[in-house]
Each structure stands twice: as structure tokens, then as C-alpha cells.
Design a protein that fits this description.
This protein has helices spanning 16-19, 21-26, 31-43, 63-67, 85-97, 111-117, 213-226, and strands spanning 6-12, 47-53, 71-75, 100-104, 124-136, 151-161, 171-178, 183-192, 195-200. It is of the alpha/beta class and 264 residues long. The chain has a single domain (6-226), classed as Class I glutamine amidotransferase (GATase) domain (Rossmann fold, 3-Layer(aba) Sandwich), CATH 3.40.50.880. It has a nine-stranded mixed beta sheet with strand order 2-1-3-4-9-8-7-5-6. Strand 7 and strand 8 form a beta hairpin. The longest helix has 14 residues, at 213-226. The mean pLDDT is 94.
């Protein structure tokens, strides 16, 4: 086992799989169980993968759990409003500090994604079991590593279409075309603070998309890409006295002007 494990938490609402027949048939132990198994298979002994769900205390995302999470994957749909604001704030802070975040499919409407993006993150959609063709438009990107060909197809899926109300992505790795005519930026990356974020569109609860080996490869690649890296993150204001080098000017500071500023 490697000295440094990649610590992954797979989060899922786990509602549809318990309350609706079709999702229960496809994901009897929950979407989180299928994703966790895929990551354990793809990442092997280099990763420690755990799961968490909405109905656990603090949604399974306590400060302790998040402090031991390098990458968090997020799947939600029916209960975005039930996610506690305190947990959203906690996840947001950890992303800024460097924790990676993968937002999957309908997680586009989650509180945490909308908080990080600063937009509605809304889109066109239609559930008609139509074909989706996922084009790789950045074949050099590590998230696309190991994919064969210029595209792959999912025979039945839910359509997500433009306009997708997100900020301009740092990178667009995948672009989807649907049988009904729409297109969608289905694989996008962002950086917030020190954290890396990957949004990946395919993955509806009534279709077996998370059993597809190409989708599982992309998600595992996304987890590797989003792993923390780089130097120490300084996200708070820092008053620096004395200066690093001598300053010739003499200056009296009016401290009342700085009261209430973070980090001062």
C-alpha cells in the first residue's frame, strides 16, 4: 500500500434508489455504492474510498470527515434544499483550501455547486431515453486519459442542453450531442481558491450510465486530476508587520479604518 493514500468520499442523496422501482433495479445499493466500487477498481490500493449519504448525521460530512477527504464526489437530485447550509459552508471552505470536488449530473443544481459558481447553473433538460454522443474535445487532458476514439455513445440518457448557466470554464474536456438535437458542455473544469472542480454531465438515475466502463474511467480520472497539489494556501487577509524590507516613509495608521476587515 502506498505511503500517501488518495482519500475519496463519495456522497449521494440515496433517495431515488430507495423510493422508486427503476433506480432501485439499476442501483440496488445506491449510486454511491456503484461509484465507490468503480473508484476502488480503477484507483486500486492508491486510494481509500468511503461513502456518505444525506440521512447520516451532518449528511456524513462532518468537519472530521472533510478534513480527511482529498476529493469529494457529489450526486444529488431530489433534495438539494435539504442539504444544511452549515454543511455547504464547510464543503465550500474545504474546496478553497484545496479539496477536489466532482459534481455529477443533476448535482449542477446543488447548493455547493451554485455557491462555487455564483450563477443559477440551470439548463435545458428532457428525459426521453435518447442517445448521447460524448465528444472528447481536449484529448490531451488527463481526465480523458485512456479513452479510445474521438467520442463514445450512451444509448439511453437524459438530455442536458445549452444554455448551461455556468461561468466560463477553465477547460472544456467533453461536449455532448443528443439525438434530439441539443448540445451540452458535459465535462468542464474550474478552480476556486486552491481547489479543483470537475463537472461531468452523464449519469441519470433511471439509466445504467454509472455501469459504463468509459464513464467510470472518466470519473476515476477526474478524481486523480482533482487531488490536492501545490503549495500552502493563503486565503485570509494577513497583516504583515514588520515589513520584509525597510520602508523609508513614516506613516501613522488610522486603525478605525480597518476594523471589521477579515485577517486584521
Amino acid at each position: 500500500m502506498p505511503e500517501t493514500l488518495l482519500r475519496v468520499t463519495v456522497w449521494n442523496e440515496f433517495i431515488h434508489e430507495r423510493t422508486a422501482a427503476r433506480p432501485r433495479e439499476i442501483y440496488p445499493e445506491g449510486i454511491h455504492a456503484v461509484l465507490a466500487a468503480a473508484l476502488r477498481d480503477r484507483l486500486g490500493p492508491s486510494a481509500d474510498v468511503r461513502t456518505a449519504t444525506l440521512d447520516e448525521p451532518e449528511h456524513g460530512l462532518s468537519a472530521e470527515v472533510l478534513s480527511r477527504t482529498d476529493v469529494l464526489t457529489w450526486w444529488g437530485h431530489a433534495a438539494h434544499d435539504r442539504v444544511a447550509d452549515a454543511v455547504v459552508e464547510r464543503v465550500h471552505r474545504r474546496v478553497l483550501e484545496g479539496m477536489g470536488l466532482l459534481i455529477l449530473h443533476s448535482g449542477h443544481a446543488s447548493k455547493i455547486f451554485r455557491r462555487l459558481m455564483g450563477t443559477s447553473c440551470m439548463l435545458r433538460w428532457r428525459e426521453a431515453a435518447e442517445k448521447e454522443r460524448v465528444w472528447t474535445i481536449d484529448p490531451s487532458h488527463p481526465i480523458a486519459d485512456g479513452l479510445d476514439g474521438e467520442f463514445f455513445e450512451l444509448p439511453h440518457t437524459e438530455m442536458y442542453g445549452e444554455y448551461f448557466d455556468i461561468p466560463r470554464p477553465d477547460e472544456i474536456v467533453f461536449l455532448s450531442w443528443y439525438e434530439g438535437g441539443e448540445v451540452f458542455r458535459s465535462g468542464c473544469t474550474f478552480r476556486r481558491g486552491k481547489g479543483k472542480i470537475f463537472y461531468f454531465g452523464p449519469g441519470h438515475e433511471t439509466f445504467p450510465i454509472y455501469h459504463d466502463e468509459r464513464v467510470r474511467r472518466i470519473i476515476a480520472n477526474g478524481v486523480r486530476w482533482a487531488a490536492p497539489a501545490g503549495s500552502t494556501y493563503f486565503g485570509e487577509g494577513r497583516r504583515i508587520e514588520p515589513s520584509l524590507s525597510p520602508i523609508a516613509a513614516k506613516h501613522d495608521v488610522d486603525e478605525s479604518l480597518h476594523r471589521g476587515e477579515r485577517g486584521k
